[in-house]
Amino acid sequence: MDEIILTGIKPTGTPHIGNYFGAIKPALELAEKHENSFYFIADYHSLNTVKTAEELKTHTYEVAATWLACGLNPDKVVFYKQSDIPEVFELMWILCNVTPKGLMNRAHAYKAAVQKNNEEGLDPDAGVNMGLYNYPILMAADILLFNTNLVPVGQDQKQHVEMAKEIARYFNNKYGETFVVPKEYIRESVKVVPGLDGRKMSKSYNNAIEIFAPQNELKKKIFSIVTDSSLPSDPKPTDHMLLELYKLFADPCEVAELTDKFKAGIGWGEVKKIAFEKVNEILTPLREKFNEIYSNKAMIDDILKQGAERARKLAKDTLLKVRKAIGAQE
Ligand code: TRP
């Protein structure tokens, strides 16, 4: 049978083109190639960092509309919200009981929090809640519940998937073969998408171009990219951020053409205009689609509800098997 692909998406605000090329696009391409894929919004994973109910709600709709606008086909991909699947949380509790505490002590996010506290002379666990501590076990439940074979994630999530594998093995050793042991599928680092200042694009650097930024904002951002004071007739450095940006959106012929102009000499104003127009040409249909979907919350609710129904069919089967294995059910 075809492999089962599953990945979780944390609802954290409006995505930028770094997220688009680094995560969304490759994940959608992967889903195209497989019959059984489960993509879900990991809303309970973000309870940890989200500050208000309003924020959770808004971000959930934003991220749902984002993936749908970027091309996720909910008839094909099972697209749901984690909190709509109660089986995840029952499984998580069961998994807690085969997970050694020491394994969680080694989780990068927890260790980083402890280290920061130590450096600041605070109690090692200051500000650490059990949501942070148990985060990898919830993630294991997400994955193991659907007999997942492949988990496409960025490098930063590798350890979490490895922990899910270990947890599956602990359970299988204790109760007999029950879970599929998943494999991580680490996205090859697509060329790092540079931000407006040339550093890696990241919300925390404040150098991001949002995928759905209104046209005038997009223009302002692209025109704000720093250039030098060379004359239009001077050759331009072909490693410049504006050309890198253009490469993400233009086809190879167009890239070759602009690269030649860089070598021959071209005014920066002209470069910015060409780059903006190309980026805008690609992003405009996405932006329009996003706005249309985002303004129809009932439709999003409906899609996620249907996804949850499909997901729960499989989730219930797995959970029944697990309940039998542990002796909770005949
Ligand atoms: N922790 C992941 C992240 O921060 C999101 C996530 C939650 C996830 N559950 C998952 C990813 C299961 C893959 C599989 O990006």
Describe what is shown at a glance.
By secondary structure, the protein is mainly α. It has helices at 17-32, 53-69, 86-96, 101-105, 108-119, 130-144, 158-175, 215-223, 241-249, 252-264, 268-294, 297-326, and strands spanning 4-9, 36-41, 78-81, 150-153, 183-186. It has 12 helices and 5 strands.
Plain-language structure description:
The chain has 12 helices and 5 strands. With 330 residues, it is mainly alpha-helical. The chain folds into 2 domains: 4-192 and 296-326, 3-Layer(aba) Sandwich (Rossmann fold), CATH 3.40.50.620; 212-291, Tyrosyl-Transfer RNA Synthetase (Orthogonal Bundle). Strands 1-2-3 form a 3-stranded parallel sheet, with helices on both faces. The chain has a two-stranded parallel sheet with strand order 4-5. Helix 7 (158-175) links the parallel strand 4 (150-153) and strand 5. The two termini are 29 Å apart. Bound molecules: tryptophan (TRP). Tryptophan binds at residues 6-8, 10, 42, 45, 139, 142-143, 151, 153, 157, 160.
List keywords for this structure.
2 domains, 12 helices, binds tryptophan, mainly alpha, elongated, Rossmann fold, three-stranded parallel sheet, 330 residues, two-stranded parallel sheet
